[in-house]
Amino acid sequence: MIHVLRAGRWLVITLAVLVSLFPFYWMLRTAVSTADEVFFDGISLIPASFDWSNFARAWTEANLGQAILIGSVMTLSILALQLITCIPAAYVLAKVRMRGKGVALAIVIGCLLVPGQVSLIPIFIGINSIGLADSLPGLVLPYMTSAFGIFLLRQQMMAIPDSLMDAARTDGLGHFRTLRNVVVPMAAPGIAAFSVFSVFTHWNDYMWPLLIARSPDLATPPLALALFQQADAGFDYSALAAGAAIVTAPVIVLFLIAQKRFVQGMSGAEIPG
Amino acid sequence: MTTLLRDEKIVIAARLPAQPLRRSRTNLVPALFLLPAGIGIGTFVIVPAVLSLAASFFSVPLTGGAWTWVGLANYEHVLTDAAVLQAIGNTLVYSVITIVPSLGIGLCLALLANSVARGRAFVRTALFLPMTANLVAMAVVFRWLFAFQGGFINQVLGFAGFGAVNWLGDTSTSLLTLAMVGVWRSASFSMMIFFAGLATVPGTIHEATRAEGIRGWTKLTRITLPIMKPTVVFATVVAVLGSIQVFDTVNVMTQGGPQGASETILTMTWKLGFGYFDLGAASALSFLLLVVLVGIGLIQRRVLAGGHK
Asked: How far is B256 from chain A (nearest CA, A)?
């Protein structure tokens, strides 16, 4: 009986792992195959030939080099702005006594309830009216701060003992140096978890770049891939698969490196976005 | 989950002697610390939410220029337009057939992966991958897997002696196909949340249940799940919010077609705003969705708060 259960468990897990991984395998399998093989030998799990030219075709035709540059600049700019805006705010909400703090915290928690995507149309109307549509600042600015980030970092900073804050004050440290020398190092795991989360969210974001980036030069990696599919490559599945592999590889590598932090960030999450 | 953490902290805080928080002589520096975040939240969360309510009562030209007051006409439009109603219906169907399997599979896999001794890291990583990959890239791959001609799924069906199905091109299957991709993605997400939640169940609970001879289904439904209630609620809310806001896969795989059969609320909002240049109607639909989503968030808070009193 135990053996049957154990075998059943492994069967379910093996099946789940196969279903999870198969699309990735098929992406790579298609990406190295010639068009002929893709259409006429589709069921063969092992490619008969390796044709690396698909990657080159995807890279040039979808303009992925430019897209990865734009995507990296956008993602890192957003991260930098979010850290600059969220860390000091989280510190004040966690460790400084001041009037109006309760209201500020209530606003942050209220904002967690507003999902990002439904506000995109009014944000677009605003960004468009100040002439930032179709520009890099237009891609970045709406995400300059993150209520989720403030909340997550505040939770982390609450755990820092107040005695440490008192010691810093006794040593004559002002707010700025307390933040830099005491709070930031102690909240580092939370900051790392949030950073990974932010990079994932914005590298993978599709809807906002689709709205705001009108010229192809400003396309982020997912947008460039989608445009490539809609343009002329709709049935060039080898190149599309190669492009998909190029676009998704950086996040998967990042995930493999930062898996622990990422899961940690998720488990501490309220409503991401 | 955070509620759990927060409560733990309240308990810990209650045990410590009361210590005054840092009080500044002037509030100038803390106020400056709050300012950048305040500007960001004000400009890009609060103002847009208010603006989306305001714009829903006007006719808004996409090119800029004067807004014209139209009262409730936009709401009347979106709530009587057959295409919009179809999109709302599709979104509800998609949500139901995505959320239930995602949560069920996610919980099962989290329990199974948690009990595996050998190869645990590999199993976990493999099962987490669907939710980390770029969704647009995976949608491109799934569009190929489900392609009518040459797609892997139809090749396998042909091999087994079945006819080819036009998965994405047939009104009766396009939404279902998107939902299958949705389950692939969000079961992985649910699993990650449950997995993190299972780690919070204290080891003493496992010992106690073993000593009492409580096992299997009884242990799961009477002990583990009640302890993990915040996680269960969180996973449910994440699944609900994710499926109601489905956009990327639809936009890449079907563009809402054929004949609107896989149109969802967000793709419809998109079409209203940027296909028909009717930003007022798009705002009205956005605002209705916002009210629903905020409502779900508030219910989550209520459920969690009730569970801890």
From this structure: 14
pLDDT(B131) > 60? yes
**pLDDT reading at A16 higher than 90:** yes
Write out chain A residues lying below 8 Å of B240, CB-based: none
- pLDDT tens for each residue of B234-252: 888 888 888 988 999 999 9
Task: List b or e across B42-72, with b for residues whose CB sees 16 or more CB atoms inside 10 angstroms.
Answer: ebbbbbbbebbbebbbbbbeeeeeebeebee
Q: Which of A218, A220, A239 is nearest to A229 (CA)?
A: A239
What letter represents residue B271's amino acid? K
Nearest CA in chain B to A21: B126
Find, in chain A, the residue whose alpha carbon is nearest to that of B241: A115
Percentage of chain B beyond pLDDT 90 is 28
Q: B269, B91 in Cβ contact below 8 A?
A: no
Indicate if the pLDDT at residue A271 is higher than 90: no
8 Å CB contact of A206 and B136: yes
Q: Is B119 left (phi over 0), alpha (psi -120 to 50) or beta?
A: left
User: CA-to-CA distance for A205 and A199, rounded, in angstroms?
Assistant: 10
For B66, the closest chain A residue by CA position comes to A129
Q: What is the pLDDT of residues A241-250, one digit of tens each?
A: 999 999 999 9
8 Å CB contact between A139 and A212: yes
Spatial contact of A110 and B8, defined as CB atoms under 8 Å apart: no
pLDDT at residue number B278: 82
For A204, the closest of B22, B62, B135 (CB atoms) is B135
Closest CA to B201 of B216, B223, B183: B223
Q: Which residue is listed with tokens 């987490």? A: B128
pLDDT at A240 > cutoff 70:
yes
Give the integer Cα–Cα distance in Å for A259 and A237: 30
Residue A177 has a CB neighbour count (10 Å cut-off) of 13
| Residues of A with Cβ-Cβ distance to B159 under 8 angstroms | 43
| pLDDT at residue A110, as a whole number | 82
- CA–CA gap between residue B50 and residue B248 (Å, rounded): 26
pLDDT score recorded for residue B26:
64
Beta-carbon separation of B140 and A241 below 8 A: yes
Contact A119 B49 (CB under 8 A): yes
In angstroms, the Cα distances linking B302 to B99, B223, B267, B291, B306 are 21, 22, 31, 16, 6
Domains present along chain B, CATH in parentheses: 19-69 (no CATH), 73-308 (1.10.3720.10)
Residue-level pLDDT at A173 = 85
Check CB contact of B193 with chain A, cutoff 8 Å.
yes
User: Is the pLDDT confidence value at A102 over 90?
Assistant: no
CB pairs under 8 A between A and B: 299
| Residue-wise pLDDT tens digits, A53-90 | 889 888 988 889 999 999 999 999 999 999 999 999 99
> Among B269, B246, B117, which residue's Cα sits nearest to residue B184?
B246
